[in-house]
Design a protein that fits this description.
With 165 residues, the chain is of the alpha+beta class. The protein is built from 5 helices and 5 strands, in the order βααβββαβαα. Bound molecules: coenzyme A.
């Protein structure tokens, strides 16, 4: 594929169904342990479009959407950052520089428009890639912080019954 044929532009509302399909295909292929149904991906993409449309970019090849990248702006103790970044490419177009082009555009926009200091997101540790790539380009695990999560009802049950267990 000729990389000159790939264009990166801001998302438009009419892109939402197609970008949701690309999101689901991409993460379903990535063996993260998540399985995205199309309606869940649609709600997810709609949420992002509603909250931060100026930082939601899509990659286009001809008329086909082949990837996306988005993040949200947050004020932190050390300045403004882009957080919860999402990067995904249609599996048919992996390894063509699309991910790199999208990530570059997103971070540049963050720097130019919001003067961001930091940029962060989650990546699956199931396979060596993509953490291996992120480490090469100056990402690192967040020192002193661990992402924790669980099932809401199990946590509630522990909170409510913990003293009896
Ligand atoms: C991560 C992802 C966006 C990369 O997209 P891509 O367009 O294939 O990546 P690029 O072609 O721009 O390559 C970027 C770098 O990763 C490397 N790379 C890409 N796929 C790789 C693989 N499967 N194994 C090892 N390295 C790989 C490339 O060689 C390149 O490195 P370089 O710049 O040092 O040469 C894509 O694999 C994807 O959508 N994965 C599923 C979703 C996901 O896990 N997203 C990341 C967490 S939000």
């Amino acid at each position: 594929m000729n990389n000159a044929e790939i264009k990166i532009r801001l998302i438009e509302e009419s892109d939402i169904p197609e970008i949701a399909r690309v999101y689901a295909d991409s993460f379903n292929r990535a063996e993260t342990g998540e399985h995205w149904a199309e309606d869940q991906a649609l709600s997810f993409v709609q949420y992002w479009y509603n909250t931060q449309p100026d930082l939601f970019f899509v990659a286009v090849h001809g008329h086909k959407i082949i990837g996306g990248a988005m993040a949200e702006v947050k004020q932190w103790w050390n300045g403004v950052g882009l957080d919860h970044a999402q990067l995904f490419v249609d599996p048919e177009f992996f390894l063509n520089g699309v991910g790199k082009a999208l990530l570059t555009k997103l971070i540049k926009e963050g720097v130019d428009k919001y003067s961001i200091i930091t940029f962060s997101g989650m990546a699956s540790s199931h396979n060596a890639f993509p953490v291996s790539w992120y480490k090469k380009i100056a990402f690192a695990p967040m020192a002193n912080w661990v992402q924790l999560g669980g099932k809401a009802k199990e946590i509630l049950s522990k909170l409510e019954n913990g003293k009896n267990q």
